[in-house]
Design goal:
The structure is a single chain. With 315 residues, this protein is of the alpha/beta class. The protein has a domain of 153 residues: Isopropylmalate Dehydrogenase, CATH 3.40.718.10. The protein has 11 helices and 11 strands. It has an 11-stranded mixed sheet with strand order 3-2-1-4-11-10-5-6-9-7-8, sandwiched between helices. Strand 1, helix 2 and strand 2 form a beta-alpha-beta unit.
Length: 315
């Protein structure tokens, strides 16, 4: 049986974001057809106003080969990928961009500039990655974290990872944020460290150290998202079977979960990095057009939430 990729959740997201002002975005080193087309498609839909940062002649050559019109688009010349990342981060620090978008450079090159202590975009939060997943067979959008940045996060780092995901869920206007902290089982087992951490994180939420969501864990994947599984195992929880944020023990588990959903459940995964001064759009050459646009739309909503929060703080 083939599951049709309906993209209904992403389409609703894109339609809403097209009612908002486009977000000024620094695009670091868009020097291949895939990354440049992604940025220009998002600009065409008025999701972003891109500033292209990289070797000007090379960018213009890619545009010509791909038949892309760069009329009216600002290009900031930078000679190579590391310099492109550095200049793109500078544009954010100068207030000329409210989002950062990865081009054809390596993710490590971009993130190295983002996390620099004096010239980067660090905040008090740990930087982390979220996949916003549109799974056709699942009713709700799922956020999966962290499957791309933090390899083996500590308990302290998981607090930031979870809070970043909760803030993202609010930016995406989830009516209720229900966080499942995943492990291999739903009971606390001293021999399985992730179950101990899950229990500690839930108690931290009870004490107000994590806010804005209902947390439960440890939960295995089945009893995090399947009400039938919850009924069979007789789990009493406001999150079990209804989770819309899935927090994995480590990057390996997150990577396998996200790719399993993509390749076995026909899901699409929009990627965003949070915890920096601005949202960072991470896309892959393998991403579909819809996924690329959805990643930009997620960044638009995060940028809007930041502006709204800043306005409220001033008021």
């Amino acid at each position: 049986m083939t599951i049709e990729r309906a993209h209904t959740k992403y389409q609703r997201l894109l339609e809403f974001c097209r009612t908002l002002p486009p977000t000024p975005t620094a695009v670091a080193h868009p020097c291949d057809e895939s990354s440049l087309t992604g940025a220009m498609d998002a600009a065409r839909l008025r999701l972003i106003v891109p500033t292209l940062v990289g070797p000007q002649q090379r960018i213009q050559g890619v545009a010509k080969a791909a038949n892309l019109d760069l009329t009216g688009v600002t290009i900031v010349d930078a000679p190579y990928s590391e310099a492109s990342a550095e200049r793109a981060v500078e544009l954010v620090r100068e207030g000329k961009a409210e989002a950062l978008m990865k081009g054809s450079l390596h993710t490590d090159e971009l993130m190295a500039e983002v996390v620099k202590r004096d010239t980067g975009l660090r905040t008090k939060r740990r930087v982390s990655h979220c996949f916003v997943m549109d799974v056709p067979s699942h009713e709700e959008t799922l956020i999966v974290t962290d499957a791309a940045v933090n390899i083996a996060p500590t308990l302290e780092e998981k607090v930031d990872i979870i809070q970043n995901a909760i803030d993202l869920a609010h930016a995406l206007q989830f009516p209720e944020v229900r966080v499942a902290i995943l492990s291999a089982m739903e009971t606390v087992n001293p021999k399985v460290p992730s179950t101990i951490e899950a229990a500690a994180l839930c108690k931290m939420a009870d004490r107000g150290q994590i806010t804005g969501a209902i947390l439960d864990g440890p939960l295995a994947l089945d009893n995090a998202i399947s009400l039938e599984s919850v009924k069979i195992k007789q789990i009493q929880s406001p999150v079990a079977g209804r989770a819309n944020v899935l927090v994995v023990p480590d990057l390996e588990a997150g990577n396998m979960l996200a790719k399993s959903l993509s390749f076995l459940a026909s899901a699409d995964a929009a990627g965003i990095v949070l915890g920096a001064r601005v949202p960072i759009i991470l896309t892959s050459r393998a991403d579909s057009l819809t996924t690329r646009l959805a990643s930009c739309a997620v960044a638009v909503l995060v940028a809007k939430a930041r502006r709204d929060a800043a306005t409220s703080a001033v008021a």
